[in-house]
Design goal:
Two copies of one chain form a homodimer. The first copy, chain A, has 149 residues and is mostly helical. In chain A, 48% of the residues lie in helices and 3% in strands. Chain A is built from five helices and two strands. Chain A has a two-stranded antiparallel ribbon with strand order 1-2. Chain A binds a DNA duplex (30 and 30 nucleotides) through helix 2.
Chain lengths: 149, 149
Amino acid sequence: METLTIGDFAVRAGIAPSALRYYERQGLIRAGRTGGNQRRYERSELRRVAFIKIAQQVGVSLDEIREALASLPENRTPTKADWTRLSAHWRRKLEARITLMERLRDELTGCIGCGCLSMQRCNLINPKDRLAARGAGPQMLLNPPDQDG
Amino acid sequence: METLTIGDFAVRAGIAPSALRYYERQGLIRAGRTGGNQRRYERSELRRVAFIKIAQQVGVSLDEIREALASLPENRTPTKADWTRLSAHWRRKLEARITLMERLRDELTGCIGCGCLSMQRCNLINPKDRLAARGAGPQMLLNPPDQDG
DNA sequence: CTGCAACTTAAAGGGCACTTCAACTCAAGG
DNA sequence: CCTTGAGTTGAAGTGCCCTTTAAGTTGCAG
């Protein structure tokens, strides 16, 4: 078996077939086709999905993920070097995000804790270096509600 | 002036009036009413909105935020101690999230970098301690696209 | 060659966090 | 008073990330 059907691929990727089709429409992944028009996935596509899942956990939009993936070669299977380059890029993003959250953590204690939580003054809420202001953005990315209390 | 109109409150809170009405429908904030049925906000409600904004930056859903806010007293204005208790709770959540992302960062380099990024084996993608698996959840929480390349 | 699970598509639906719209009312200054 | 900007409501719309459904096709086991 050289390639995978969407069902098999979905199981291995840990993602629904419908999501895979969606990703394909969005230009995030690609698949070959049989004579009868059914998708056949190369194993290397699993890495793409893996990358997408990781990036999502970090809170990146599919739009940005697509941009990142666009830096991979189109005509050949990405090498380890390709992935390394990409991962280095994301590592930086991730680190920026971590730094952000660390500051948030530090200020949360000092700022809310002290009761100063004023919209006007508090640099937690009105940061000069704008944290991640644009658009609305929720999601239960954070805590697996297990540890909730 | 003791209370604020929705317009003034919105400006001070740095959030649209429509969002404030939405939050109220969701039970996240409260407002008094004039004889003519217009909302009048106490200044102390600003702290609630501040808290909501912070929690959102961390990636928490409004549902969870409401739960957290539910621990504040209903019959009186929350004291600094109330906010301190709440912030301590969130600090723990935030720290868990930071730890998660640090692991993500560390493994990203080692795991994608080395090319091992296999769906089956990689504990980045299939973590035993399930990171934040439930539901789909994107958002551009992460990077202000400024530093993108 | 047949039968059935798995596949295909386009289109509609769903949850979240809002925003926008239409139609209407209120509050405050001149 | 009257005007006008600001506020009110419910309902519909938006963007993101998918899932579901309907109607039909493919592929492999028996």
